[in-house]
Amino acid sequence: NAGVTQTPKFRILKIGQSMTLQCTQDMNHNYMYWYRQDPGMGLKLIYYSVGAGITDKGEVPNGYNVSRSTTEDFPLRLELAAPSQTSVYFCASSPVPGSGNTIYFGEGSWLTVV
Amino acid sequence: GENVEQHPSTLSVQEGDSAVIKCTYSDSASNYFPWYKQELGKRPQLIIDIRSNVGEKKDQRIAVTLNKTAKHFSLHITETQPEDSAVYFCAATYSGGGADGLTFGKGTHLIIQP
Fold this sequence. Notes:
The complex is a heterodimer.
Chain A: E1 4-7, E2 10-13, E3 19-25, E4 31-37, E5 43-51, E6 54-57, E7 64-66, E8 76-78, E9 87-94, E10 104-105, E11 109-113
Parallel strand pairs in A: 2-11
Antiparallel strand pairs in A: 1-3, 3-8, 4-5, 4-9, 5-6, 7-8, 9-10, 9-11
Chain B: E1 4-7, E2 10-14, E3 19-25, E4 32-38, E5 45-51, E6 56-59, E7 62-67, E8 72-77, E9 86-92, E10 103-104, E11 108-113
Parallel strand pairs in B: 2-11
Antiparallel strand pairs in B: 1-3, 3-8, 4-5, 4-9, 6-7, 7-8, 9-10, 9-11
């Protein structure tokens, strides 16, 4: 199994541009998440999904959108990129949250908005 | 929602000594507490976890303790080695309720001095 795969690994965007971070998992997990990690900080939840067709906002959803058309894929879209969105983005998945079912992270996507 | 506080933000210890990182959580419903290790430029990876029905768990040189009454849990690393240098994150969540994943602490940068 490849686990959680994210692309691209690195990207530079200009202010106002849009892009989509791709995420796919091959573990048949129902739950998927997008986190962002700012330098020297912890991880903050942007959006999550409990299954295909269902998404919900996390702690910091503004400026982002997601979709979940299949169990495997959970893309994150940035509309009108801003410098405040410069961060490392981690996609993750889990069977169910909590109680010993851990979250598995992708390798991260480094995004710089200039 | 859940709030997780983690201390210290930076911890420097001599190689071979022990290191202790402490976290507190706010939501008494939380029942799962994992610890992640993140090496520079890498994804967070689970190193140990504990459920609320257990007070202590060990895995070789690392151990985690949980005090549900006080709502705090700690990571203990004994006989530290250079490869233990990394950022460590604690997290908390609960199952059976919301599906919004883990709430992370802000991380502890552990430095092992030779």
